[in-house]
Amino acid sequence: MIDADEMVALIESCRREMKAMLPADEFASLSSKTRQDYRQLGRTLLQRARYAEGGAAEVMTATQRPTTFYKRVAALRYCLYAGLVEQLKSLHSALSARPVDRLQVMAIQAQLQQQRAFLREFETARQSGPTGERRKRASKRQALRGLPGDWREQLYQRAAKGKYADAILVAALTGCRPEELRRGVLIRRVNNPRNDMGEIRFEIDGAKVKAHQGQPQRLIAYGAHDPHPLLEALRIRLAGRRELLVCIDSPVNFTVEVRRLAHSLWPKHKHAITAYCLRHQWAADLKRHAAADSVSQGLGHASAKTRRHYGQANQASSRHALHPAAIEAERPVKPTTAKGPRHRAVSSTESTP
């Protein structure tokens, strides 16, 4: 038998607990990719929680990294919220049907009861915070120490005949994220009307972008005749074409391949070399030779404070550093908050028109 009063009380209890835990519009700014990632991780954690002795709290706190804990918190919040919304919709449909499918209603009722139990476990663990001893995170900047000045060129040469050759070249020349390579980076040969000089431009669709964070679009340009070996390799790769789209299927597989190639080149190096090391090296080059805001814009940041985590000027080689001719980004770098036109950060090698 279905107890109507018990059902109403259960529904209201779930709604109150979810409302108290997060505003209804909490997830409005999440991208579809983030929603998908949160749902996948949240479902995995809930599945583990069903068999863990400590339930949701155990799977949330089974990590030494606070960042991992808070990512699990975010994923579970989203997954629990989305699951509750779906269950309440299903319940409404089941109760509206004629005749009422009592078995379906009872199944949904059981799911809601389990959902409420998870909510209470989750909230208790969330308020307690991470409990494991914090493990120091390995710095990618440290990984650059001890590498030869031309390590990027050597890495590309080792990868030149593989499926990720173009991706490594683009990551080295732009410092883009692996996720941005998954979306695709467009390379174009153009003439710059500002100085009537040829340029090779990289158009990047930004990742980690929210309402007031990150750069939705950015562009990094080099002189068409820049003699850097990486640009020489790119000109050969273009082979007369005006444009080339470079993309990868899996950011994870890409960084695994970079790690494998680097280990084959420098097996005694103390730190793992990953795709993000190319990003750190690119930032180090710009910190030595370019304006501060251009470093932030080129990395895809809208906040000046974030660039301090990437590369150091003393890690840039005088012989092998990259010198972008210009960087354009959709947003200015904070603390400026007013919305303005597309900003172009000019390098020391190009005079302001």
Automatic annotation (TrEMBL):
SUPFAM superfamilies (UniProt xref): DNA breaking-rejoining enzymes
Keyword Magnesium: no
InterPro entries cross-referenced by the UniProt entry: DNA_brk_join_enz, Integrase-like_cat_sf
Gene3D superfamilies (alphabetical): Intergrase catalytic core
Region feature Disordered, mapped onto this chain: 297-353
Presence of keyword Transport: no
Protein keywords: DNA recombination
A GO molecular function held by the record: DNA binding
Any one of the GO BP annotations: DNA integration
Name listed for the protein in its UniProt record: Phage integrase family protein
Species for this entry: Pseudomonas saponiphila
Upper lineage: Bacteria, Pseudomonadati, Pseudomonadota, Gammaproteobacteria, Pseudomonadales
